[in-house]
Amino acid sequence: MSSTVSHADSTVRELPVPGGPLHIVMVAPPYFDVPPAGYGGVEAVVAELTDALIDRGHRVTLLGAGKNGTRARFVPVWESTIPELLGQAGPEVHNALKVRQAIERIAEVDHIDVVHDHTFAGPLNAPFYTEMGIATVVTVHGPVDGDPGEYYRALNDTANLVAISDRQRSLAPDLNWVGRVYNAVRPSEWPFRQEKKDYALFLGRYAEYKGPHRALRATHAAGLRLVLAAKCNEPEEKAFFESRVRPLLTADDSVFGEADAVAKRLLLASARCLLFPIGWEEPFGMVMIEAMACGTPVVALRGGAVEEVVEDGVTGIICDDEAELPAALEAVRQIDPEKCRRRVEEHFCVDRLSAGYESAYLKALAPQRASAVLGGSVSTMVVRPPSAAQTRVSNA
């Protein structure tokens, strides 16, 4: 709901009562459908969050490209997705301009409470939205050290940031964080399988920091077959595959290619384990919770949010060095698939996702409410009974 503050000579626009229904404009990257047919962790999170917020009574307008698989009102800012441009700076800036124009058009005819941006360049629009009286919430899906950290630091006055792990937040504690919300899945949409086949799975993209070459060396040392279901579309991915992956392949290895949503679920549910030998500060690692939702444990190198996602010895095995991976690939047989599934249900479900972002939205909107109340007559506020969404946030 909303409330109006009357002044002696003017009326402030309606402001949401804490926890009441909001109009959220969700900004997705333009590279893949929402949800994605294959690769696209950010788009998967956007889809889950969008529908979860609608379930909680909020109104969501989704800006993106390609096909909309959510229940939100969809406003395409590109005629089609542009996966071939992923990783380039130009399309990021161009997308930010397109999004800003779209939001300006929407705001002319419809009230917007929050812009929730999931892109990298999009937060550059935050000062513009502030002038319009719209709060900006940004989920930081990538790194926060080095240049990215300086970039987000420059936006501290206008962009409200949400971390996707405690580790990510700890690397730049001075940023304008308004919360930490783990990514999530709906376990019911992931097939659980108790009995596993005898292969390890690498699922991701061909890049040094993702570690497919380390996965091959580890499985060869363990005498285990490896299935590589990885994205190989961008020039650097193709170059890495040819120079660092292909020379290590044996007849026992299987190069599956990029897996779509159906194939990914089957591969994850059947694997002895997901092998996650990262070499960087992974902010979250969506594929780890997808694997555990299928009852499949994770064998990972320690780094980034791995220790927050995987319970070592219970839902997987965390190693400190690549040399430890072969033994872990054998020991992981003792992990109980039921415990893997349960961890996702308890810690990485969409109810926690939507409640966490509701809290972030309310924190981002708080300065506007305070300004409106202090600038007007508090006694004239129309306070309505709390909505169901408010009750859920209060109890979260």
List low-confidence stretches. Answer: 1-15, 376-396
The secondary-structure class comes to alpha/beta
Q: What is the number of strand segments?
A: 15
Mean pLDDT: 89
Largest sheet: 7 strands, parallel
Strand content: 15-25%
Report the helical percentage.
25-40%
Quickly count the helices.
14
Give the strand line-up of the largest sheet.
5-4-3-6-7-8-9
Task: Provide the succession of SSEs.
Answer: EEEHEEHEHEHEHEEHEHEHEHEHEHHHH
Between the first and last Cα atoms, what is the distance in angstroms?
19 Å
Textual characterization of the structure:
It is a single chain. It contains 14 helices and 15 strands. With 396 residues, the protein is an alpha/beta fold. Strand 13, helix 9 and strand 14 (298-301) form a beta-alpha-beta unit. It is globular. It starts with a strand and ends with a helix.
Topology overview:
Blueprint (H helix, E strand, L loop, with lengths): L1 E2 L11 E2 L6 E5 L13 H15 L3 E6 L8 E4 L12 H21 L4 E4 L8 H6 L3 E5 L6 H8 L5 E5 L2 H5 L6 E4 L18 E7 L6 H11 L2 E7 L3 H11 L8 E2 L5 H10 L2 E4 L9 H8 L4 E4 L4 H4 L6 E4 L5 H7 L5 H11 L2 H26 L12 H8 L1
Parallel strand pairs: 3-4, 3-6, 4-5, 6-7, 7-8, 8-9, 10-11, 10-13, 11-12, 13-14, 14-15
Antiparallel strand pairs: 1-2
Helix pairs in contact: 1-13, 6-11, 9-12
